[in-house]
Write a structure and sequence with these properties.
Helix content is about 65%, strand content about 0%. It is mainly alpha-helical and about 90 residues long. It has a domain at about 45-85. About 5% of the residues are buried.
Length: about 90
């Protein structure tokens, strides 16, 4: 009873199921986010982040890097992404 070196068929199927489950979850999450893009806007997005992104982008364009610090909490990623969409 020599067992060959490598992956047996049960382990191979297990890996394929794991890979398939990751793909299904990823595609489902992407589909749910992309289909409603632009239809929903949260309260803080409308009240704060759109304007902050505009000010952030204007400060970057003018070279006034000190003016990019708009709030005391870390919102840099949101302002970068928001300014890219302007």
């Amino acid at each position: 009873m020599n067992k060959t070196v490598g992956i047996d068929s049960e382990q191979q199927w297990s890996r394929w199921w794991i890979l398939l489950s990751y793909i299904v979850v990823g595609v489902t999450a992407l589909w749910l986010r992309v289909t409603d893009l632009g239809l929903f806007i949260s309260g803080d997005e409308a009240n704060f982040w759109i304007r902050r992104s505009e000010v952030f982008w204007a400060a970057l364009r003018s070279g006034d890097y000190g003016a990019t610090a708009l709030t005391e909490h870390p919102g840099v990623t949101t302002m970068w992404l928001g300014s890219l969409s302007i």
